[in-house]
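To: structure subgroup
Subject: Chain for Friday's discussion

All,

I'm putting the inputs and outputs inline so they're searchable in the archive.
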Amino acid sequence: MRDTIFRPSFGNKPSVLVGRDDVISTFRESLDSPAGSRERSILLLGQRGTGKTVLLLEFAEIASQNGFIVTRPIVAAKGMLTKILEQLRRAAEEHLKKQGRKMAGGSVGVFGFSAGIQFDKTEIETKSFSYQISEICSELTSKRIGTLFIIDEVQSDERELQDFIISYQEMVGMGLDVAVAFAGLPSAVSSTLKNKVLTFLNRSMKIYLPPLRESEIFSFYRMVFRENGIQITDALCKKVSEATDGSPYMMQLIGHHIVRNISEEEEVTKEVMDTAIALSIEDYYNDICETVLKDLSERDIEFLLAMSKDDKASKASDIIERLNMSNANYQQYKNRLRDAGVIDQERRGVVVITVPRMKEYLRRKYAENP
């Protein structure tokens, strides 16, 4: 059966966002708050697979429906400022064309703006990002049009992210109608928050995305299966819900594989369920766990392997002994992995792996390939 229900891939927005109604309501309310208020800056925090990017896409759609110019999710990395300006120019031009309006002055120029804020090649190369973005947003504000910026994968010590925040603060000080939504891993963002230049993020409205409740996932599965003529018993539906571990991404993966492997009678059997869960775990390992490991050094992975020997949290003293490393070395790699959003410090001298299923993946992968 072809799957037209689930969308288990990054950047795809599901038709139903399970368990995030409160977050969406908070964002809707923020758009009604005065420009410059704390609610106009939202920071989503969650582990991989919790649906941060999906929520950012939902925010973009809601803001567009409310008349805002919106830049699509842009990763906080080198080149982000150029992308923001390109998207802002294009989105503003399209928005104004739909309204039959132009920017101030007269004829629309090469970038879709009139003489009032048209930037030729020389100006783009010489005028600062702050000058260009404030000119555009000032023009939009004068026409009673708000602007929402969306920044994904907030990282520590990213210079261009700092430049954006400085420019954003300047626009707020000018009374411009702007808003921003950020998203990032809790541990990576916690490092960013230590940077004095980014104290702005400390004043943002922080929303933590916990795992979904099993009851929410159960209700979702029952609803979508029933609506699509797929039969499943409550007992099997409960087991399927438990297998997601509260991960929105796993929820989409398992649903996808159930639909793909459904029986001719369109009934979810135990065999179908077991196959779907096994395939989903493999996909999760490849999409999440393996992707994380590719960005790590050999020594980083050895640190994680030392942690994988513990069923729950790991003591610093045990890791140091297993790896025969100094305390200074331990602190170095602990901080590296924490900044990467792979581990976190549960309490002094105790760390945990934050990527779901990573511990099981490491045990299997390196047992097979020691």
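Points worth raising on Friday:
Strands lie at 41-45, 69-70, 74-75, 147-152, 178-184, 205-208, 314-315, 343-347, 350-353.
Residues 123 and 132 are 9 Å apart (CA to CA).

D.
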